[in-house]
Write a structure and sequence with these properties.
Distance between the termini: 22 Å
Number of helices: 11
Radius of gyration: 23 Å
Length: 463
């Protein structure tokens, strides 16, 4: 890749080409959990958080009516930091001169001004639209006065709160290299290779620790075994209204094929199977050019999500309140040479594969130098996605509509998207996977029919 293209794809601040594109999409800004006193006792006293997204600083706060406000962080009076403001219930007051702002950004008080002053009526801090879905607050950072599209009917937004769980984590690298891990079907056979398989009874909420759907000679195989023993997948990509559908086939025998269907939801989300009845929808949100938060939504098509178990599993690996991983460059991501020889391909733990992905992304450097890389045939999804991203950047720069979920006209065609991980007949696997996702939707207590726009019998993955 040319250096100028790498710059164009990775820089996200105000006025940058990629930054202007990403501002046309709803961006996660916080978990609702971050305002839960059980997670952070300070929230019971002062529900205010500093937020940095797309290289800009904001303040997020909640008033006593439960309304959230997302404002530019520099006070419009003299530029002091509103993240240190006094939350007085009906607004946030700057400690410098007492100017006060409600959740809409309207200044409601300038107490040092002469009595009767109407200055406050003429002052408004820019505020940003907010919506809440599945335990996450999303902000809209498009041009001031523009109307954002609604969020599309992705499963993670359609399922009730009882059947979703959201978590996040901070990575010290550019958003694009982090996102590209999720659309790379080949890496799982190496980066996440375990030399021994665990009991399937202990697999809840753990990626690649459960069994693939289906059986071989009556035996259910853990995904770890499939990935380990069949490490050369055939990968195909298909353009969809939401982005890309990725198909990875691992040929087990003349009669059986392992099928893994995942999706790239443009511009920064991927959807993958966690188990037969649960998916992960993961968004990589730029903090700035060299940091990003991943937001993962777990969606159950079976019983309610065990939020407490999933939260405890993940809280053990981060430090609050910033959701900063305990593993990182500072401690070699927990690398253990003995483990690498005897237990895992990477040597960075068996309990949390997020650390594996974190290492892969952070070890590239803060911003990957793509002029030095050599893509192979298994990188076809990454190459295709980069072309889509460059085209979208150019289109928006020319005044066009952002593609995928940024285009409200496409929303009727955007549902799901469906995923699968299972052992299928080598002949007819296309019909098999479509039947599996139909059955999963039919059995879902919150969605007992195939959604309009979901997969159909003629909807097959192609190169």
């Amino acid at each position: 890749m040319k250096a100028e293209h790498n710059e164009r794809l990775t820089r996200v601040g105000p006025g940058t080409p990629a930054g202007e594109l990403l501002r046309r999409y709803w961006q996660p800004v916080a978990l609702l959990d971050e305002f839960d006193p059980a997670q952070d006792p300070d929230m019971a006293i002062r529900p205010v958080r500093a937020v940095r997204v797309l290289g800009q600083d904001f303040v997020l706060f909640r008033d006593t009516q439960g309304r959230f406000g997302l404002l530019d962080r520099d006070c419009p009076h003299r530029g002091a930091d509103l993240a240190y403001g006094r939350n007085e219930g009906d607004g946030l007051r700057c400690p410098f001169h007492g100017w006060k702002f409600d959740v809409t950004g309207q200044c409601t008080d300038t107490p040092a001004e002469p009595l009767g002053s109407a200055l406050h009526t003429r002052v408004r801090q820019r505020s940003y639209p907010l919506i809440e879905r599945s335990g996450v607050l999303f902000g809209w950072f498009g041009p001031e006065g523009s109307t954002p599209p609604a969020l599309p009917a992705l499963d993670c937004f359609e399922a009730p709160a009882s059947h979703t769980f959201a978590f996040k984590g901070l990575w010290h690298c550019n958003w694009l290299q982090a996102f590209e891990v999720g659309i790379d079907p080949a890496h799982a056979s190496y980066l996440h290779r375990f030399f021994e398989d665990e009991s399937l009874d202990e697999s809840y909420g753990k990626q690649f620790r459960g069994a693939s759907m289906g059986a071989i000679n009556g035996e259910r195989w853990p995904m770890t075994r499939v990935l380990r023993e069949f490490a050369r997948p055939d990968i195909a990509c298909m353009a969809t209204p939401w982005g890309l559908r990725l198909t990875a086939l691992r040929h087990l025998s003349e009669t059986l094929t392992h099928v893994r269907i995942t999706n790239a939801v443009f511009p920064q989300t991927f959807v993958i199977p966690l188990s037969e009845t649960m998916t992960i929808t993961q968004m990589h949100v730029p903090v700035d050019d060299t940091h990003n938060y991943w937001y993962a939504f777990f969606t159950s098509f079976d019983g309610p999500v065990d939020k407490q178990t999933m939260r405890e599993q993940r809280l053990a690996s981060v430090t609050l309140p910033g959701y900063v991983p305990k593993a990182g460059r500072h401690n070699d991501w927990g690398f253990n040479a003995e483990e690498q020889v005897n237990r895992t391909f990477l040597g960075m733990g068996e309990r949390d594969i997020n650390v594996h992905d974190q290492w892969a992304c952070e070890s590239m450097g803060a911003i990957q130098d793509r002029t030095r890389e050599h893509l192979g045939t298994t990188d076809k999804a990454i190459a295709m996605y980069r072309r889509m991203l460059l085209d979208a950047i150019d289109n928006v720069a020319a005044g066009g509509t952002p593609p995928g979920i940024g285009d409200a006209a496409l929303h009727d065609q955007i549902h799901g998207p469906d995923t699968v991980d299972g052992i299928a007949p080598a002949q007819g696997w296309q019909d098999w996977w479509l039947a599996q996702v139909r059955q999963r939707r039919d059995n879902a207590p919150w969605r007992n029919r195939l959604a309009p726009g979901s997969v159909t019998a003629s909807d097959e993955a192609t190169t």
